[in-house]
Amino acid sequence: MVVLSGDWIVRQTGIEASAAERLLTTRSASTLSFEAAQLGRWDSALIVFLWALRAQAAKCGVAFDQAGLPPSARQLLALAPVDVVPVAVPTAHQRLPERVGRQAIAGWSEMVEVLALVGESILCVVPVLRGRAGMRRSDVLDCAWEAGIAALPIVTVVNVLVGGILAFVGAVQLRRFGASIYVANLVGVAVVREMAALMTAIIMSGRTGGAYAAHIATMQGNEEIDALRVVGIPVYDYLILPRVVALTSMMPILYLYGCAVGIFGGFVVAVAMFDLGAATFIEQTRSAVNGYQFLFGLTKSIVFGAVVAFAGCRVGLRAGRSAADVGRAATTAVVIGIVSVIALDALFAVCANALDI
To answer: CA–CA separation, 355 vs 36, rounded Å?
Structure first.
């Protein structure tokens, strides 16, 4: 028999969490009943105590007789679940085939989502060209400014240094054979075909792709994307399409600018450090670089820009809702963007070799 007396108020009654457990484990009983004639005021403190006591009685095999409780307390207690104390379920050990299968299914599902995102973008190409897309022009202009004009300083620094490094390393090696004049050919072809597009894409992956992922992941955590869906605003038209269009359209411009400053960096190193004539450098570069190589690099830059934009947006959309998930989304987007750009560059190199470009 448990006698309940006095007031049971949350802010006034100090009941330990283990009181219910000690009450039954220290006594041998078959039935647990109550006497509440002297019970005063009570609130949820009493219900929580009875809730824990009923769970402990079920664990010990003791009958729980609540006939002596006030009717309102019995009604509230009936609303509480019987299995109060959760039982920890041991994690089943997964065998290697099962783990591989789960990873394969998760990878396939992710690939389907990415292909759906790319397919939706392709279907929006014609409405975008006609000016009938659901996105706002102000969003596209803001994203274009952030991905284009605002990125010029870092693109300038990196491409100038890359061009200068190519000229320096090439001149040191070619001077041994008396062929220093071909430094211009080396710098021009390397910058136009490979380095300008590749380095610019890597810069944009770390700078813009990570920013896209962090921005969308933050909106996901603040439930802003859920609010857009509830209001009826298409998330793709409002968030994804402006970023994809802006970065894809800005990448060719940044590529051409990177070619110019990269060749200029090689020009400065070759003329200042290896006594190569300015006119000779310009003539050798003009004869080594043709329109097909510019077209090849331009095509790569467009593909790289789309890949970086899709990677950042997709990672941001599938991010969690915590602050740590925002950082993980930005890191993941940068890693995926850089790896994808390098892999695609290798694929382009193989295709160019097969097509004799």
So the answer is: 92
